[in-house]
Design brief:
Blueprint: H1 5-13, H2 17-40, E1 45-49, E2 53-59, E3 64-70, H3 72-84, H4 88-108
């Protein structure tokens, strides 16, 4: 199953897809800059915190290996979501709607 995270975030927050694309492209440029800087300083390991975890790059003589390590928060959320088989985005949406209804109800009375 393939998903498009940037499109989903764009839709949820009503941010134009072109802005999300530009941010993604800027992130790519930053990552490449980190790798060049590391290579110049003869460091073969680069860890880039991307908010939801980190991408670790290991520069070898003729190749670059990389892996994603989720943040503690993301890892816990993944485990909880799979164990309960409930989508946290649906739960957050329902909670937001409930809060708005309660707030509106309190204003009426």
């Amino acid at each position: 199953m393939k998903q498009k995270l940037l499109n989903d975030i764009s839709n949820i927050y009503s941010i134009r897809a072109s802005i999300m694309t530009k941010l993604s492209e800027l992130a790519e440029l930053c990552i490449c800059d980190y790798l060049v800087e590391a290579k110049l300083s003869e460091d073969d390991l680069v860890e880039v915190n991307i908010g939801i975890g980190k991408i670790c790059f290991i520069m070898l003589e003729d190749s670059i290996e990389y892996r994603f390590v989720p943040s503690t928060k993301l890892e816990k959320l993944i485990i909880k979501s799979i164990a309960s088989m409930k989508s946290p985005i649906i739960n957050a949406s329902e909670q937001g709607l409930e809060n708005k209804l309660v707030s509106t109800y309190k204003e009426l009375f």
